[in-house]
């Protein structure tokens, strides 16, 4: 069985696929809004060097990632051990070496990686226009505006993803997520920019 199929099997027997999707969207959304907030803050404040902006945003992205990995691992380990204990008591058997026992050890790690990598990957995508600009690539719009555009686009796509999962109209779900990002950017502009 391939590694991917093994991961799917462990998620299926623990019924945690929904949890993985939820963590991906929630922490991906956190990453997108955090980067949007930081970039908007730099945009409306005293002009700063792009390398400094990248450093600050990258630091926040790494912190979000570590926080996501550690918090999800700790909480999911506790939940999986609790669920295994209940199953062992119901079956009056030691299941440590069964598929459920293996899942108890590996599923928290899978969930933690998804929870931690989602905000990191989304943040790196949002920062990509800033890296391109510092590398000398001419962008059609200024790099901070390009990064904001990428953040809004990714937020919309996360909404579309949620819409497809929940079975509601993908466009409506995407626009709802986009509205949250636009309201966030507007609040920062109004409150920090004056």
UniProtKB/TrEMBL annotation:
Membrane spanning residue stretches: 23-44, 50-74, 106-132, 144-163, 175-192
Taxonomic superkingdom: Bacteria
Keywords linked to the UniProt accession: Membrane, Transmembrane, Transmembrane helix
Protein name per UniProt: TIGR00267 family protein
């Amino acid at each position: 069985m391939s590694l991917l199929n093994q991961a799917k099997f462990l998620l299926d027997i623990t019924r945690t696929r929904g949890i993985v999707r939820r963590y991906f969207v929630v922490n991906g959304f956190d990453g997108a809004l955090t980067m949007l907030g930081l970039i908007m803050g730099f945009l409306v404040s005293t002009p700063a060097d792009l390398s400094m902006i990248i450093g600050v945003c990258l630091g926040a992205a790494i912190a979000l990632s570590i926080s996501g990995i550690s918090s999800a691992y700790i909480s999911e380990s506790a939940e999986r051990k609790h669920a295994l204990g209940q199953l062992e008591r119901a079956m009056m058997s030691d299941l440590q070496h069964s598929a459920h026992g293996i899942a108890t050890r590996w599923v928290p790690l899978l969930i933690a990686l998804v929870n931690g990598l989602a905000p990191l990957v989304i943040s790196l995508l949002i920062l990509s226009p800033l890296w391109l600009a510092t590398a000398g690539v001419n962008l059609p719009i200024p790099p901070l505006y390009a990064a904001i555009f990428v953040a809004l686009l990714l937020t919309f796509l996360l909404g579309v993803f949620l819409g497809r999962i929940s079975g509601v109209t993908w466009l409506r779900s995407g626009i709802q997520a986009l509205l949250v990002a636009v309201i966030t950017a507007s609040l920062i502009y109004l409150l920090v920019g004056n």
